[in-house]
Phenylalanine--tRNA ligase alpha subunit
Amino acid sequence: MQLPETQVAVLRAADAQSQRDVTDIASEVGEQPQAVARAAFELEERGLVDLGERTEAEVTLTGEGEDYAADGLPELALYEAALAAGAAEEPVSLGRLIGEAGLDGDAVDIALANFARKGYGTVDSGDVTVDADADLESDAELQALETLAAGDAVDDEAVLDQLDRRGLIDRDERTVRSVTLTGDGVTALMEGVEAAETVDRLTPELLTSGEWETVEFTDYNVEADADDIEPGRKHALREMADRVKDVLVGMGFQEMQGPTVDADFWIHDCLFMPQDHPARTHWDRFAIENPGKIDDVPDDIVDRVKTAHSDGVGEDGEGYHSPWDEDFARQLALRGHTTSLTARHLAGEALGDLEPPQRFFSVEKAYRNDELDATHLLEFFQIEGWVMAEELSVRDLMGTFTEFYEQFGITDLEFKPTYNPYTEPSFELFGRHPETGELIEIGNSGIFRPEMLEPLEVDCDVMAWGLALERLMMLATGAEDIRDVHGTLVDLEYLRTEEVIY
Ligand SMILES: N[C@@H](Cc1ccccc1)C(=O)O
């Protein structure tokens, strides 16, 4: 019988009496485990071997686990320092021992917690006493770490659980495949098998020699095992941002660009937000110290904004009747919303004067000194958008949101009237979380007031919104905590596997 070379090697290495692991055969015949697994699948299809499969626990050291395996556990360092300092006879101050044991940062707390847990001694109002008889040699956790570091297995479940709790190991399962010869396999071997002239791998040599054109290739087996490849890829949230941009472009919008650090003039004053408005402090802006201000705010717009703030607009307009300070408006900050870009565009500062109809958007970062929690980040992506037309109504606004969110499978939007100094009417937008069923706020919107539009010399209707990209991501993927989609706490496995396809 003629078989491809790897299959012949696997067949010869297999046994009729016992199962042999694919990995063992691979090292014996000097092949990659995947190549051996592929050959084993082929042989099984020919009825020459049986394949077995079992799962095995796999324990690997985390970075911290590796460090401790090499340098020892912090609680042992504390014990040794304490013993040397005479803490078996009388208490020694913790402060001194920390220095002598060379502990710092988190290691201090880790040492203390485990020192007490293991009964190596006691810590009482800052004084350490040790048990002189404690047997450090047999510290089961250190021994297990060293065993694992040497590549050997540890069976003690209780110790493994403890190491897991300490974050020193990762526990996983892996599939182990094994091969046994069938009766037909034995017969084939007895009758003689030889390597066929088939080729199971395209090599540079085959390509350069031109032989690839005449050799016979083995069949391609799509069921064979292969390693998961984890190449660098775009962050899932960035993919979502790209998707959002595609959808908005599809809806006829153009993308806006503009500064991340901007003058308060564009962030707040142009939006008819009074200079003493609580939002200007309660948003807790991230102010820029150097340079603290800009000087190129356009004089004519400054004058009109100032008048709107003090006297309002129109015949019987009402302003805020409070002082308006140009220097205050020139101060720089990280934008608290991307509506500063909208203000710049409406003012003609970005692309010159714009005639209706117009549709613009941006998906950019905004920064607020909020309390970090399950629905708030200090920096997040805002999906800003606005439509300029002769006449717009709330129906246009709602229709746009319905169309937009439908693209992400979100069809149960709710609107709640709210107040913004720059829009009237204004609506907060809510969506239902697919897992918790909770309504979460996903955006804020409205139709710009004349007090905002007139100073910018826009004399038609403009509706606008700011939506949170991360909240959209939560609704679309079911993530329950915003920190699971943006920031340093995002799970690596999530980033490797999340697919943003709608
Ligand atoms: N700037 C608002 C969103 C918004 C934009 C435009 C109009 C109305 C509301 C926010 O950050 O929440």
Remarks:
- The domain at 63-157 is CATH 1.10.10 (Arc Repressor Mutant, subunit A).
